[in-house]
């Protein structure tokens, strides 16, 4: 499968979240060899959308001649678009949001009712493209934290898109936390294998992956420098 990974972390390969993403891709590769291209969004020149809507009328060409042209070609050539990003202010980091806004040329101005809401009619054929979100965050709680990012992703893409969220993700970059991070990454790898095999991941497995790796209070105490010693 042709996979385009959009890494929204400014930490590039050092990203906490990319540990989760790499484990997921390892699982997919265990099923069969995948063709993976990773874009570190922070390194790309992506102007902000100016809201002129010209791209929605002219067959899909944006007024900005920047790296987004190549990225849109990569999106159209992909079968799976994997958004890998840390939670920033309950959403995605600004460079990735700029990229998301700049996918507007894929839509036309026309809108249609989809279930209970409206969505723009595609200007490009993205019917074979599936989308997946992997998001890490710094707090130990998932509830009252990930919801805005998940809702945005599911509204922008298909409502049944697979979403993986993992709290306490700075632990993935802490070797002393390997006793809990290694088993968690093994679960994520299992999810990747399942996704490659069946196109989806069990709800129970997603829920297990989304639980804190250590108790919330312990994590908060460690972050606060209060380990009780
Ligand atoms: C500007 C900024 C905003 C953040 N907002 C949140 C947030 O809303 N909720 C949360 O749990 N963590 C938040 N964090 C913490 C990051 O999500 C966390 O450090 C994450 O592990 C970083 O992942 P990365 O290494 O993949 O970039 C924020 C961090 C930054 C720098």
Please name the CATH topology: Rossmann fold
- Give the strand order, joined by hyphens, for the main sheet: 2-1-3-6-7
| Arithmetic mean of pLDDT | 96
- Distance linking N and C termini: 50 Å
CATH architecture: 3-Layer(aba) Sandwich
- Name the overall outline: globular
Order of helices and strands: EHEHEHEEEHEHHH
User: What gyration radius follows from the Cα positions, in whole Å?
Assistant: 18 Å
Q: How many beta-strand runs?
A: 7
CATH superfamily: Flavodoxin domain
Strand fraction equals: 15-25%
Q: Which CATH top level class fits?
A: Alpha Beta
Structural class estimated from helices and strands:
alpha/beta
Question: Could you please describe the fold and organization of this structure?
Answer:
By secondary structure, the protein is an alpha/beta fold. It has one domain: Flavodoxin domain (Rossmann fold). The chain is 35% helix and 20% strand. It is built from seven helices and seven strands, in the order βαβαβαβββαβααα. The chain has a five-stranded parallel beta sheet with strand order 2-1-3-6-7, sandwiched between helices. The structure holds flavin mononucleotide (FMN).
Chain-wise SSE layout:
Layout: E1 2-7, H1 16-31, E2 35-40, H2 68-77, E3 80-86, H3 94-101, E4 107-114, E5 117-122, E6 130-136, H4 147-156, E7 162-166, H5 178-198, H6 203-209, H7 216-223
Parallel strand pairs: 1-2, 1-3, 3-6, 6-7
Antiparallel strand pairs: 4-5
Flavin mononucleotide binds at residues 9, 11, 15-17, 86-90, 136-139, 145, 169-170.
